[in-house]
Records
---
Amino acid sequence: MNLLQPNHSEFAWWVEINTVVPRCTYYFGPFDSEKEAQLSRTGYVEDLYQEGARDIIALVKQCQPDVLTIFQEEAQVKISELMHSESN
């Protein structure tokens, strides 16, 4: 057993949805099973589409997200700020 790598079977199931408009990643969950997450996925996609999201990709996976909504533009700004502060 490798103690340095997490055991992915210990993670809950989540629906990860990436959209181009707006440029975001959303996590919905946790779910007890892959089947439960798969059954819920369509509803989340439909809700985001109704809210104006476009180019939607939805995946079901085992993970442990730290943040449930990630706005890509904000992430890029934070990376730029970190790089700028490290160079000073």
---
Amino acid sequence: MDQQQPIALDPFGRDIPGECARLRMAGDVVAVTLPGGIPAYAITRHDQLHDLMLDDRVSKDPRKHWALWDQALTRPEWQWILGWIGRQNMLNTYGRDHKRLRKPLQTTFTARRVEALRPQISKITERLLSPLTYMPAGMTADVRAVLAHRLPMEVISQLFGVPADRRPQLAELVTRIMDTTATTDEAAETIAMIDTVVSALIDHKRALPGDDLTSALIAVQDTGDGRLTPEELRDTILLSYGAGFETTEHLISNGGHLLLTHRTVLRRLLADEITWERVLAEVLRLHPSIASLPLRYAIEDMTLSGVTIPAGAAILTTIAAANRDPARYGHDADQFNPDRARDPHSHLAFGVGVHHCLGRALALVEAETALRTLFEYFPGIRLAHGDPGHVPSFIANGPATLRVTLSAPPIPPAVARTRLTVRGKERPGMQELRDYVLYAYDGGRPEGDSVRTISGDTGRSYGLVHRTISEAGVPMRSRGGDHRPPASPA
């Protein structure tokens, strides 16, 4: 490699933004090492990576085009990467094989079909959030565990016909593949699990076929030009199932964290002053669910920015670094700004060209539904104290937890005790109360749990508090903008 000292990437992914900045400082094309000492090149500039992802001189098939493929099969410390590049699916194929493996799934994830799933996705979201509405004000919950993980997991499980009792094991398998801190023994166990867990699902669906994607892929295995080998069938199901929930889980978690730490954007979003489409695009630009994707391979010698990538060398698709490229997005590329002049839709989080993500539309509908419903149910939601951490991976990019306080802080006693006359009757100090509510909710929508909090702290009945606040002019809007009592009493 041209560099004397390759940069070793942190397998824990503890500071992906900082690591991206260091890579950019090192150059446009940087020699890096992945866990276990696997050598690769990282592309740090947006436009270069975009063009490289479309370049016919770059392959996704390690069996044909990676010079170190034999070492990956024999070196124990490289075992972890076989969960990514050792699979025979559309992620690791090139040319005709890629088209053949992609074709059976293309029609399933069209925007029209995904849009038809929106009512079902809404029902699942409301069911998952409903238990939280009965929690006492001020309690905390992990939104990542309760919502961000379970919603896409349920949706993709229904699409693939995965029974409820098989879902935890599949979820564990995907999490293990994403974990780039695994020991050699743990990585070997994960590779063994791929065959046993996914093959068991295939056997189950052969015995009990249904109207689902697993059954459809099994049927494809025995049809003409669309024939799949047993390994391709297994690995296609694994890729589609894992990508169908793991990446969306991080999108929801990252989106929730960014909106809760950027309250002005959240206020504008809930007031329909900015679109969900644009906000989610900026979330994906700043915190793509996959920070770096292994691997691509140079079919012939390639020279970029004065650095020669030799034929057979591995190239890491460094999406997070390219998405923060100041040359593309300006001096504030490290900031969350859905209004930036350069369209955030140009991010690379969903890939480009023939390898663009089939599940793009589904991920966006799930993320919008999850976050919109969360903020409508809990307008007083706040991040709880503590570091959310990061999932143990340099590939997956998301917080390990997303703990939130579901209600605003209690009404201060001095405000709750204040009285004044409204329409000839004593009421709580409404001017002070209104000011406090607007302050506590950052100008959001003080409905739902805000009314329950006020009711509890003033000792007044739920209905009376609702009427009192309405009379005082505190905005209590539903989705349509009209006044209404919240759906669930305290």
